[in-house]
Amino acid sequence: MNWDDPAETPERLVGGAADREDQAVEAALRPKDLTEFIGQERVRQQLDLVLRAARQRGATADHVLLSGAPGLGKTTLSMIIAAEMGAPIRITSGPAIQHAGDLAAILSSLQEGEVLFLDEIHRMSRPAEEMLYMAMEDFRVDVIVGKGPGATAIPLELPPFTLVGATTRAGLLPPPLRDRFGFTAHMEFYAPAELERVIHRSAGLLDVEVAAEGAAEIAGRSRGTPRIANRLLRRVRDYAQVRADGVITREIAAQALEVYEVDGRGLDRLDLAVLRALLTLFGGGPVGLSTLAVAVGEERETVEEVAEPFLVREGLLARTPRGRVATPAAWAHLGLVAPQTPPQPQGFGAGGGTGAPGTGQTGLFGS
């Protein structure tokens, strides 16, 4: 399964990946300039300076790299960059560029000053990546015609353009590519107060009446992500429309999100299943990832890539060399009492083996 592809990611109300409904709604809710963009204060200030300076010089803006978790506004910022520069934008993604020829076709059709948004840039093929080096630095690519000894490189001049790359895994970008970006920004998770502003703005655009307490309730369960906040707002709107008078209060929001199995900290069914298994079946760990995945009836990758990041960020789960371990906050969150004696490792080790704890040995059934 491809965990970077929203089409192949398990559907979750609190998932950061965008589905088709999200994409349609985001287009209507998306801010049009930096003054409308909520949150990411430091990034907005830095980007504003970059764009203003470029406009004053009458030049294209430097290439921009945006990194951060899904749903924080990387695509929105790319569109704002194009709007601020008064330039058209071309949108594509790394998985769509599997050959150097694919990239050459896109680059050769760009207009002067155009913004090229390359989402999930870390998943681009290596040949295309190497072609991008020259395109970003010299605005030129060499197109290879023919094969073998008779192959010929034809230089192709490109008009100045701005590349905006977005990635959820900046560490996977090779240094030569990362160094060619003139401005690099990391998108942080949002504070609850910022998410409340996002929710009030979206509610106004969706013509939904939401009380301040209702917005706060939704914001507290949105995992620091505007996309999730907007998604929860739409689901609470549905509940308020069908089972109430259409006004989103704290009580209505709490009741609606209980129906959709999103608890007060933003944990959903999968998150809670992982925690309950870790606490009740394995005494809080340490327990291996494979064993934990079997206990909740999910694939190993689902637990590791979908559930664990948020649990770790919330301080409810820790990854150790011996396996996954629940923190005191996890016991408190589920209203359970931690055992007095430290539990022994259960099942597979952190690396997937069944060797003795602390030996680093792998058992017969290592994954």
Automatic annotation (TrEMBL):
Keyword DNA repair: yes
GO MF entry, a single one: DNA helicase activity
UniProt binding sites for DNA: 300, 319, 324
Sequence positions that bind Mg(2+): 75
UniProt-listed Pfam families: AAA_lid_4, RuvB_N, WHD_RuvB
Domain AAA+ ATPase: 60-191
Top-level taxon of origin: Bacteria
Cell compartments where the protein resides: Cytoplasm
Binding site for ATP: 29-30, 71, 74-76, 137-139, 180, 190, 227
Annotated Gene3D superfamilies: 1.10.8.60, P-loop containing nucleotide triphosphate hydrolases, Winged helix-like DNA-binding domain superfamily/Winged helix DNA-binding domain
Compositional bias (Gly residues): 348-367
Reaction(s) the record says it catalyses: ATP + H2O = ADP + phosphate + H(+)
Region ranges (Head domain (RuvB-H)): 264-367
Keywords: ATP-binding, Cytoplasm, DNA damage, DNA recombination, DNA repair, DNA-binding, Helicase, Hydrolase, Nucleotide-binding
UniProt remark on domains: Has 3 domains, the large (RuvB-L) and small ATPase (RuvB-S) domains and the C-terminal head (RuvB-H) domain. The head domain binds DNA, while the ATPase domains jointly bind ATP, ADP or are empty depending on the state of the subunit in the translocation cycle. During a single DNA translocation step the structure of each domain remains the same, but their relative positions change.
Main function: The RuvA-RuvB-RuvC complex processes Holliday junction (HJ) DNA during genetic recombination and DNA repair, while the RuvA-RuvB complex plays an important role in the rescue of blocked DNA replication forks via replication fork reversal (RFR). RuvA specifically binds to HJ cruciform DNA, conferring on it an open structure. The RuvB hexamer acts as an ATP-dependent pump, pulling dsDNA into and through the RuvAB complex. RuvB forms 2 homohexamers on either side of HJ DNA bound by 1 or 2 RuvA tetramers; 4 subunits per hexamer contact DNA at a time.
Protein name: Holliday junction branch migration complex subunit RuvB
